[in-house]
Design brief:
Layout (H helix, E strand, L loop, with lengths): L1 E5 L3 H13 L3 E5 L2 H10 L4 E5 L7 H9 L6 E6 L3 H9 L4 E5 L3 H17 L4 E4 L2 E4 L4 E4 L2 E3 L3 H12 L5 E2 H9 L8 H18 L4 E4 L3 E4 L2
Parallel strand pairs: 1-2, 1-3, 3-4, 4-5
Antiparallel strand pairs: 6-7, 7-8, 8-9, 10-12, 11-12
Bound molecules: calcium ion (CA).
């Protein structure tokens, strides 16, 4: 388990890092907002502890940009009485928040909860409106009618549902559904999106899969 600690107060960062290491986590500490955003986007941390007031880019903005592409669990650190930070952090997809100063035991407990929640979120079944996708029986239905999908189409649909409300890029889809060893053009993603749309959107007159120009695709709840 690798945890990124984004905090410009070096005393706090050092202390939290030491305690986390003691608990068996690997840690990386970053004090600058811009650097932190880069690191968060380019690495797969298991969790991020994110201070709000940072040099460069603030924590809320980091969270907002991160959530456009990733759902890494995030616990934000806010100053006492900064209710606005707390609310906008949760609005932007933070899993939890801590108000400074905090007891390290409480932070550790919240980290455990956030990590557990995330692993439990690996679902067996997705329901979105009249669409139901069951991973156990590998079937998809719309309003009770079975949708005939190939394995690849099914995996693609599950990936989009797993990232509900998060815009995924063609590269991310390719990595997740086709695998890292797939050498090919990302156009294949567009082709399969068209297949899915023909079988679901067109067939049932719904707008399930949304194209976000210049970014990728999303299914919204
Ligand atoms: Ca700070």
């Amino acid at each position: 388990m690798h945890i990124l600690i984004v905090e410009d107060e070096s005393k706090i960062a050092r202390f939290v890092s030491l305690e986390l290491k003691h608990e068996g986590y690997d840690t990386t500490c970053i004090a600058d907002g811009r650097e932190a955003l880069d690191a968060a986007l380019n690495n797969d941390y298991d969790l991020i502890i994110l201070d709000v007031m940072l040099p460069g880019i603030n924590g809320i903005e980091i969270l907002r940009r991160l959530r456009q592409v990733k759902d890494t669990p995030v616990i934000i650190l806010t100053a006492r009485d900064a209710v606005v930070d707390k609310v906008s952090g949760l609005d932007h997809g933070a899993d939890d928040y801590m108000t400074k100063p905090f007891a390290i035991e409480e932070l550790l407990a919240r980290i455990r909860v956030a990590l557990k929640k995330r692993s439990a979120a690996k679902k067996e079944r997705y329901v979105r409106g009249k669409l139901t996708v069951d991973l156990g029986s590998v079937t998809a239905t719309y309003d009770g009618h079975k949708i005939d999908l190939t394995k690849r189409e099914f995996d693609l649909l599950v990936y989009l549902l797993d990232n509900m409300n998060v815009v995924v890029t063609r590269e991310q889809v390719l990595d997740a559904v086709w695998g890292y060893d797939f050498y090919g053009n990302t156009n294949v993603v567009d082709v399969y999106i068209r297949y899915l749309r023909a079988k679901i959107d067109d067939e049932y007159h719904v707008q399930l899969i949304e194209t976000v120009r210049g970014s990728g695709y999303v299914i919204r709840s």
